[in-house]
Amino acid sequence: MAKFRTLDDIDAAGRRVLVRVDLNVPVRDGAVTDDTRIRAVAPTITELAGKGAKVILLAHFGRPKGKRDESQSLKVVVPAVAKVLGRPVAFADDCTGETAAAAVSALAPGEVLVLENTRFYKGEEGNDPEFVKALAANGDLYVNDAFSAAHRAHASTEGLAHVLPAFAGRSMQAELEALDRALGAPVRPVAAIVGGAKVSSKIDLLENLVTKVDLLVIGGGMANTFLAARGVDVGKSLCEHDLAETARRIEKAAAAAGCRIVLPEDAVVAEAFAANAPNRVVTLDAVPAESMILDVGPKSVAAVVAALEEARTLVWNGPLGAFELEPFDRGTVAAAREAAGLTVAGKLTSIAGGGDTVAALNHAGVADKFSYISTAGGAFLEWMEGKALPGVEALKA
Ligand code: ADP
Ligand code: MG
Predict the structure, then answer these.
(1) What is the mean pLDDT of the chain?
(2) Is 221 in the pocket of ligand 1 (CB under 6 A)?
(3) Residues 6+ apart with CB under 8 A from 305
(4) CATH for 186-384, among 3.40.50.1260, 3.30.360.10, 3.20.20.60, 1.10.3210.10?
């Protein structure tokens, strides 16, 4: 794995440390409703404060599009940050200029300050060198602890790393180490499960994975596109018939790379996309014309279980069926429990990410049993697609 400077390498005492964090948390009626992201960055903040740093947090919040917008002020998250950290947290209602400078100079070693939403300035998303300079004026060192924003080359996620000594925070470090275990230098065989709704949203992902993994399980709606490309009649199922050629190309690339593709052998079908819609299990040569495939069937689940038992490493993005609608969650839940059990038994390293995937693993009650769950939606997918993440590249020592 590429070398990153981490908090182990930082001499923070008395220094002003600009820490890019993800505070883009859900808020309802003026209160944070889910503090997962705050808890993720708390170890970095606490460690730096403990080392006597003046900790200055930079973050974006919502999409104010380069203009000050009080309804998207970070002020609302400050009490939640203070609560998670168990210490007072100051706030400055600007991230550059005199207001920010005054708040920073009022900080004593070990104290924590949140600066206002970086996206109040166009220079943030534009990665404008003048804006980078204005942010850098308030810090001696830069720590990036926001993997979830690392796929964006913005001033606070990328630009700052070029003008200040830059370090990966603990949450960034954990994410990079987990991802490296999954696809960097993984224990083989490596299996990937890719599911979800559409092939079109994950073509890059599939094309990269077939060159990296030994086994690719395709499920969910996107399996229908592959099945149709193989000549299966999928009835009224979600299917991108125009991508048949793409599906065949991906199958060829997989064969050339020695990656085995595992497609469903049977399916749970229903006539309505609705919870508890009347349903039955059919083999793939018998999908009724009026039906939709909403989940993988029991034979397919057995094949996924066999694939997992063979694998030593798993990366997973995308549910195997319409898991939000019972009973079409069964295939996803069964696969999730199998992966979790193998992980707990020390037989599998399991990494999963993606908004709906994490929801599905929570629904199956096994998210905490996986080796690593990435809560970074877009950044996790771009990493799985084999793309370089600008915020990560800039941290390489
Ligand atoms: P993630 O957010 O983890 O990247 P996706 O958004 O790609 O995952 O996929 C999740 C969606 O895929 C869910 O809304 C689920 O209902 C849908 N889905 C899975 N299987 C099917 C299917 N057979 N037919 C229709 N939709 C499906
Ligand atoms: Mg999704």
Answers:
(1) 96
(2) yes
(3) 334, 335, 338
(4) 3.40.50.1260
pLDDT tens digit sequence for 326-376: 999 999 999 999 999 999 999 999 999 988 999 999 999 999 999 999 878
Report domain extents, the chain.
Answer: 7-171, 186-384
355 is catalytic: yes
The hierarchical CATH code for the domain 7-171 is 3.40.50.1260
Query: Percent of the chain, pLDDT > 90?
Result: 91
Distances (CA, A) of 197 to 240, 353, 357: 10, 15, 12
Same fold, 7-171 and 186-384: yes
- Please give the Cα distance from 92 to 94 (Å, whole number): 6
Asked if residue 324 has its Cβ within 6 Å of ligand 1, the reply is yes
pTM of the model: 0.88
Instruction: Give residue-wise pLDDT tens across range 44-74.
Output: 999 999 999 999 999 999 999 999 999 999 9
Pocket test residue of 232, 356, 384 for ligand 1, highest count of atoms within 8 A of CB: 356
The reply to whether ligand 1 has any atom less than 6 angstroms from the CB of 197 is yes
Q: Which long-range contacts (CB under 8 A, 24 or more apart) does 244-253 make?
A: 246/199, 246/203, 247/199, 250/203, 250/206, 250/207, 250/210, 250/226, 251/226, 253/207, 253/210, 253/211
Active site residue 378: yes
